[in-house]
């Protein structure tokens, strides 16, 4: 199955995205713990796309597709038509660096990579694709 959602690039639209992801994961019977982790990971990537790639310009949009090629194996595909950002190559700062520089932020993508089993980035002219992979525990 495939489930699709399109939201405009405004932070207040992230609530719609989280609700969509939760409903899809409920249908798939993903465990409560993993459901919360996956919502957090998808929200983090989409927040970065909205803030950094589109600068919160609500004339732009992003698309999320959730696929389950086999039971329990999930693929979250986020399409971005903005400036893009190679999440797969991103090296998160260490906790020590963040504390030392008193930097705000910087932990989100580190968390995404910890939650997900795999992260890919693909660029084609005018389109950036972020793929997040996770093998899930199902409750039924």
UniProtKB/TrEMBL annotation:
A molecular function GO annotation: protein serine/threonine kinase activity
All residue ranges annotated as the Histidine kinase/HSP90-like ATPase domain in the record: 12-131
Domain of life: Bacteria
Keywords: Kinase, Serine/threonine-protein kinase, Transferase
Record-linked Pfam families: HATPase_c_2
InterPro entries: Anti-sigma-factor_SerPK (IPR050267), HATPase_C_sf (IPR036890), HATPase_dom (IPR003594)
Protein's name in the database: Histidine kinase/HSP90-like ATPase domain-containing protein
Protein species of origin: Fulvitalea axinellae
């Amino acid at each position: 199955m495939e489930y699709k959602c399109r939201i405009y690039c405004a932070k207040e639209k992230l609530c719609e995205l989280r609700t969509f992801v939760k409903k899809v994961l409920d249908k798939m019977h993903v465990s409560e713990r993993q459901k919360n982790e996956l919502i957090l990971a998808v929200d983090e990537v989409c927040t970065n796309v909205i803030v950094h790639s589109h600068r919160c310009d609500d004339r732009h949009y992003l698309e999320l597709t959730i696929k389950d090629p086999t039971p329990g194996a999930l693929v979250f595909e986020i399409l971005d038509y903005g400036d893009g950002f190679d999440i797969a190559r991103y090296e998160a700062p260490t906790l020590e660096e963040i504390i030392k520089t008193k930097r705000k932020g910087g932990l989100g993508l580190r968390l995404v990579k910890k939650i997900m089993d795999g992260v890919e980035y693909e660029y084609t002219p005018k389109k950036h694709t972020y793929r997040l992979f996770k093998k899930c525990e199902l409750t039924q």
